[in-house]
Structures are given as structure tokens and as C-alpha cells.
Amino acid sequence: MGGAEIRIKVPDEVARDIVFHYQLRFAPKELRHETEYKGAKLDRFVFQSMLVDEVIYSVHLPVRGDFFLEIFANKIDDGSSGDSSSSTMPFRLKCACKFKIICSELKHKMHALPNCASGEWGPAKAIRHFRLFPLSHETAVINADSSEVELKFTTRRALHFLVKLRMNGVDDHFLDQFVKAATSNEDLIIGLTFPQPGQYGLDLYARPDTDSVDLTLAHACKYLINVTKVKKRIDLGAAKMENASQMVNNKYGMMSACSKLGIKPLTHKEGKLKQMPAVFDIEFAVPVFVSLSYHFIREPDEEYRDHVIMVRENDGLVAKFKVNMNKPGNYLLTIYGRKDGEEKMANIYNYLIVHDPEMTLSRKKKSKESK
């Protein structure tokens, strides 16, 4: 019916020192290099968690077919436990086992998990790598029936933290305003306020204060949060876009709200972008008091938001959309904006992007020949 659960017993004496990871992929040879389904990585349809002396894989396949689930593992080096950063450094994992999952029927439509850091869910990873112990939520899933959740951790090490809230189809930067984190003595307190009911992911990153500030924060743990009620709904500017074939010409390009918000395109002013390369950037001049969000789909209905990264540069005055298209087709990028303090996101720009690698290669050849 599209779902499967795999439980692996881990010996008590090594349960806290073994790191697990996984990869879900299509079984047919012609599809083995396909790592995504409708723009979402296949790994986001697997929920890995640790429960005492078991590692659990809950798989919810997005489409009928045959799949392989490969599970990797390795033991953290005992001799490096005294090094503050050793347990957060990358190391090689070995394939421990492999399962073939055959899905002949889907009972329900499956959605990808929030786009958090890869790997296991729950606080076990934070305990293992940072000796960061949960005081409030000891399991990977949090079910909330109110707008607010508070998480508490304790640690005997001085750590620098970063907390990110994720939700499918919503800009991470927009969600930053709903997260508060503070330290008190040896405790870390994270306060979350949710703008709408739905499924959220929480990523916690950490770095020992004794480490150089040049070192990147390492992923400590993540939680899956299901919110059923909120006091006040806040518009996320996440309405589903229309298919490009259904849009009329005057819906491409700049919308009236763009100039009202003081936003100006710096690179691509035309709404229809033809024969575009697989990777390119779109830039806008944006006032610092304006927040942006976006949708990106591949016709007819493939969610491709993961293939666009938005960054703010030049002290927030420039918004850069890094577009990455891995398949030929028609893509639709819709950009939203709002002033800080406003609730509703307004549509500011629509792009129809045509990516045809063969046409792009042909155009490059003709250009060289003309020279």
C-alpha cells in the first residue's frame, strides 16, 4: 500500500556509538541514477529514527514501483572522543544491509518530509555528537495542538547554536521570525510559534565555543512537528501556482506589486526565458524591509522548489535566485514579496523558463561557427 517499516536491533553496548544513514532509489536499472521524484529527493520519503536499541526506517513511497533501501553504518572512533570536533567530522559509512521494496498499489498520496538536513530524526544524534540532552522532547515526532511549542536541552559544554524551521513550499527565511532560541546556564531553550497548521521540520545546528568561528556549524538533530491548531493563521504566500499553459501573456513578467514594494529586476526583465542553460541566476534589487518567497514547478505539476536557492547579498539589498534545472521542460518560477509587518504575500514576478539542452547546445555551436 506504499508504506513499510524496517526495524534493526542494535547491541546495547554500541547503540550510542553507531551512526546510521540510508539511501532510497529506484530498483530498475534504467532508473537507478534517478534520485528524485517530482523534484523531491527520494530520501525525503523515508523517516529514520533511533529508539533505545533499535534503528527504525519508516518508508512511504511516492509512486508505485520497485525500490532499493540501502542502509549504511559505522562506529564512531573511540580514540577520538576527547576531540571536541572529531565526532562532527565526516567519515566513511559502510553498507550494512539492503532491502528491496515492491509497491504494487498506493493507498494514499504521499508527500515528501520537510526539507531538513539528511539522516536520522530525533535527539539521539545530538546526544551522540554533542552530549546535548533533551529535557522536554525525547522522541523524533512532536504533535502540537496549539500555536506554540517549547523545547529544552541541557549540556555541560559551551556551544554555539543555530535553529531553522522548515515547511514545504515556504521560504526558510520567512519562518525565521517564528523561532526564538536562548541559553541559560547549561540549558538551551527553543521557542516556536507556528503561522499555520501543517507539518514542520526543525533543524538544530551546533559548534563548540572553543572551536574556530571559521568552522561551519554541524547538524546536531532534527524534529518532525505536526501542528493541528493555531490561534491566528498567517498568510504564507504559498498558494499553488497555475500551470504555464493556463497562464495568459499579461501574467508573465512584472506584476503591479513589484514596483509598489520598491523591487527592481537586475538581470532578467522579460517574463519568458527561452533556451536557458541548466544553471543560472536571477537577481533583484530589494529594500531591506521586504521579505521574499517563491514557488518553482516543472510542468505539469512537479514541485521543484528544492532546485532554487534564494540568497540575500549586499547587506540584504540584492536577492539572488540560483536556478538549477536537471531535466528538459517548461518551468514556472513565481516570486512573492511583502513588507515587514504585513501578513499577506503579493505576487511580484512570474517567469516561464524553457530548458532544452539540445537547443542550447545547437545555439552554442551556431555561435561558434559564426565567429
Describe the structure.
- Strands 17, 19, 21, 22, 25 and 26 form a 6-stranded mixed β-sheet that branches. Strands 9-11-14-13 form a 4-stranded antiparallel β-sheet, with helices on one face. A 4-stranded mixed β-sheet has the order 10-16-15-12.
- It is globular.
- The protein contains 4 helices and 26 strands.
- It has 3 domains: 1-112, Immunoglobulin-like (Sandwich); 114-234, Immunoglobulins (Immunoglobulin-like), CATH 2.60.40.10; 244-359, Sandwich (Immunoglobulin-like).
- By secondary structure, it is mainly beta.
How many separate helices?
Answer: 4
Q: Roughly what fraction of the amino acids lie in strands?
A: over 45%
CATH class identity of the largest domain: Mainly Beta
CATH topology of the largest domain: Immunoglobulin-like
CATH superfamily of the largest domain: Immunoglobulins
Element-level helix/strand string: EEEEEEEEHEEEEHEEEEEHEEEEEEEEEH
User: Radius of gyration from the CA trace?
Assistant: 23 Å
Can you tell me the residue ranges where pLDDT is under 50 for at least 5 consecutive residues?
Answer: 78-86, 238-245
InterPro entries: Ig-like_KY, Transglut-like_Superfamily_Mod
Domain KY-like immunoglobulin-like: 2-114, 134-234, 254-355
Organism: Bugula neritina
Protein name: KY-like immunoglobulin-like domain-containing protein
